């Protein structure tokens, strides 16, 4: 079957999400709320499975990562320290005519003739406007089109019958200064802070202003010392968290991809600064090449830890069903990096709505960013809260005592310079920064430092959407009479499939079949999400589950009851969603067999 075009495919996916109860528009009965989504019964299961898989692989099976569940609203100082109050903004532009708001970087550049006006008058009403305005029209279009738009602009300024003044024109190439929808001039770009504000307590004053967190990460930094002490972890170790985040996105778009409320799964993995590694192990291990560097080693510096987490995360995505070729590992260019980041890799998924490169290949959109953030975050909270964020490292202290004086001086000087640079960039005056950096370098030689961090930060909703897009398939399946008909099948990996198994009695009017089927359902239910269905022809029931992405179907028939002989008694038909192959399985082997397949 031919592949549907990407926009058509996305429409089909969105429609299936609503029809089958994966995703609904939030507040739909009131017309919806842009950028907010609700997950229906299947979507809720899918999201839960995603989060469980993440938690299991990042926390449960590791000795060196612990979990956290922090509040959504935190002390506003947290957002000052993190830089969100001052820099967490997108540039926006408004259409001067319609007031529609765009993200500046999302306005498609256009070419044409710009007609400009210095103002307008309305002689009969004795009114005048001196506001300049201009309209971009494609070269083929008549000037009258520009005049019509310009008149609307001046009408909005109270001139009922505006006569346009000072018309001039010039040709423009690839300009993003005009509204692509009507050609009207846009405002100059200005920053728009993306944090959603609220007030804590009964008084709506500046003092009580707070924010819904725009990321879960900052709570991890703020609780770093509490977690360190109570979990008795030692650097290197990580703290993971899953939770809601909120961003007042200027243009939510691409279904749930850019939402205003979403969930993140973030790990902050704290490591020793490279100078500490060098003091203890003489050298920092160098990456041997691309790919997974293997089991973590004590002499790894930030580069190997970063590479390790990039590869671990890619393995995670592959493990829940996103094929390697659907993912892109994008290394941010030096000019794209945040000033404190040493390297950031974005893992992209090739969504149907992703832009295409010159060869027509989908370029992908971000699912997760893995950033090596130096010691920026903890250092910021140390400065803003006045509370120490340093750790004491016995091994480092012992190693420093044995260092040759020249090596100690070299490491100390390098660490001093890194700390000084950070402090100066953070706005600390030069003399103070120098003094503080000197103290930090002395502390390092005594075994204390602010840990550096590697941050794999993923979005649950984007991953859910990627998994839905990846699962969507149209193929052919035989109907009751063996005739091929087209089917929509969601080929979810069994680990994240919303429903793991559907149980069907062959006929609903045969009490023995129904009661046996319910027995099987109850046997499996404690271990996995089971759907019991006795309504309609068996083929229709399979088809409904194919669309829901249920990987296994179990049918209880007359053989199960032993009517065709004792050898088939207490066996069921197990149908595989993707191959549609059926096999006979003993009921007492069904549970362990399915558990094996869904873990
Ligand atoms: N602490 C780092 C951080 O928050 P980010 O790249 O801004 O980094 C991390 O966000 C992940 O959160 C993204 O890769 C994406 O999966 C998800 N995310 C960010 N903004 C989102 C939005 N508006 N809607 C849905 N998911 C979003």
Question: What is the strand tally?
Answer: 29
**Average of per-residue pLDDT values:** 95
In spatial order, strands of the major sheet run 3-15-16-22-19-18-17
Rg over C-alpha atoms, rounded to the nearest angstrom: 30 Å
Bound molecules: glycyl-adenosine-5'-phosphate
Number of helices: 17
Helix content: 25-40%
Our estimate of the beta-strand percent is 25-35%
- Helix/strand structural class: alpha+beta
Specify the biggest β-sheet.
7 strands, mixed
Distance between the termini: 32 Å
Name the overall outline.
flat
Unreliable residue stretches:
none
Structure characterization notes:
By secondary structure, this protein is α+β, with helices and mostly antiparallel strands. It is built from 17 helices and 29 strands. Strands 3-15-16-22-19-18-17 form a seven-stranded mixed β-sheet, sandwiched between helices. A hairpin with a 6-residue loop joins strand 4 and strand 5 (101-103). Helix 8 runs antiparallel to helix 12 and helix 12 packs antiparallel against helix 13. The longest helix is centred in the last third of the chain and has 21 residues, at 405-425. The two termini are 32 Å apart. The model has no long low-confidence stretch (mean pLDDT 95).
């Amino acid at each position: 079957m031919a592949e549907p075009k990407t926009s058509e495919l996305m429409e089909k996916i969105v429609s299936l999400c609503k029809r089958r109860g994966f995703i609904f528009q939030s507040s739909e009965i009131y017309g919806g709320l842009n950028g907010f989504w609700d997950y229906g019964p299947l979507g809720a299961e899918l999201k839960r499975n995603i989060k469980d898989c993440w938690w299991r692989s990042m926390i449960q099976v590791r000795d060196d990562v612990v979990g956290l569940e922090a509040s959504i609203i935190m002390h506003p100082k947290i957002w000052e320290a993190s830089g969100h109050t001052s820099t967490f903004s997108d540039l926006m532009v408004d259409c001067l005519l319609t007031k529609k708001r765009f993200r500046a970087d999302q306005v498609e550049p256009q070419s044409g003739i710009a007609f400009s006006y210095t103002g307008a008058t309305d002689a009969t009403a004795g009114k005048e406007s001196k506001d300049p305005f201009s309209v971009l029209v494609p070269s083929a279009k008549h000037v009258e089109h520009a005049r019509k738009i310009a008149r609307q602009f001046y009408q909005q300024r109270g001139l009922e019958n505006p006569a346009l003044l000072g018309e001039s024109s010039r040709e423009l190439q690839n300009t993003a200064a005009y509204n692509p929808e009507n050609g009207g001039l846009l405002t100059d770009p200005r920053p728009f802070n993306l944090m959603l504000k609220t007030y804590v307590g009964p008084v709506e004053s500046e003092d009580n202003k707070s924010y819904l967190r725009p990321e879960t990460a900052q709570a991890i930094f703020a609780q770093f010392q509490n977690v360190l002490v109570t979990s008795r972890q030692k650097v290197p170790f990580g703290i993971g968290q899953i939770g809601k985040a909120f961003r007042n996105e200027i243009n939510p778009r691409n279904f749930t991809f850019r939402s205003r409320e979403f969930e993140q799964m973030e790990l902050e993995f704290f490591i020793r600064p490279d100078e500490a590694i060098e003091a203890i192990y003489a050298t920092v291990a160098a990456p041997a090449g691309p790919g997974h560097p293997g089991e973590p080693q004590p002499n790894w510096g930030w580069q190997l830890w970063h590479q390790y987490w990039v590869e671990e995360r890619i393995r995670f995505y592959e493990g829940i069903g996103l094929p390697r070729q659907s993912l892109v590992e994008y290394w941010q260019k030096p000019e794209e990096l945040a000033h404190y980041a040493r390297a950031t890799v974005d893992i992209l998924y090739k969504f149907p709505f992703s832009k295409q490169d010159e060869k027509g290949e989908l370029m992908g959109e971000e699912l997760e960013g893995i950033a090596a953030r130096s010691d920026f975050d903890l250092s910021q909270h140390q400065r803003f809260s006045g509370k120490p964020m340093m750790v004491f490292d016995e091994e480092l202290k012992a190693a420093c005592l044995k260092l040759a004086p020249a090596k100690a001086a070299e490491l100390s000087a390098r660490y001093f310079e890194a700390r000084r640079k950070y402090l100066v960039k953070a706005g600390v005056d030069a003399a103070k920064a120098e003094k503080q950096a000197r103290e930090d370098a002395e502390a390092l030689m005594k075994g204390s430092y602010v840990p550096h961090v590697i941050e794999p930060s993923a979005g649950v909703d984007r991953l859910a959407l990627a998994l839905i897009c990846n699962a969507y398939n149209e193929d052919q399946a035989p109907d009751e009479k063996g005739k091929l008909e087209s089917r929509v099948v969601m080929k979810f990996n069994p680990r994240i499939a919303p429903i793991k198994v559907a149980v069907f009695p062959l006929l609903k009017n045969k009490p023995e079949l129904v009661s046996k089927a319910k027995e099987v359902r109850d046997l499996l239910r404690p271990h996995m999400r089971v759907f019991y269905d006795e309504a309609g022809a068996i083929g229709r029931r399979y088809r409904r589950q194919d669309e829901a992405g249920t990987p296994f179907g179990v049918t209880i028939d007359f053989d199960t009851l032993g009517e065709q002989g004792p050898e088939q008694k207490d066996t069921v038909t197990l149908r595989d969603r993707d191959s549609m192959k059926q096999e006979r399985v003993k009921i007492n082997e069904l549970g362990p067999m399915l558990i094996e397949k869904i873990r």
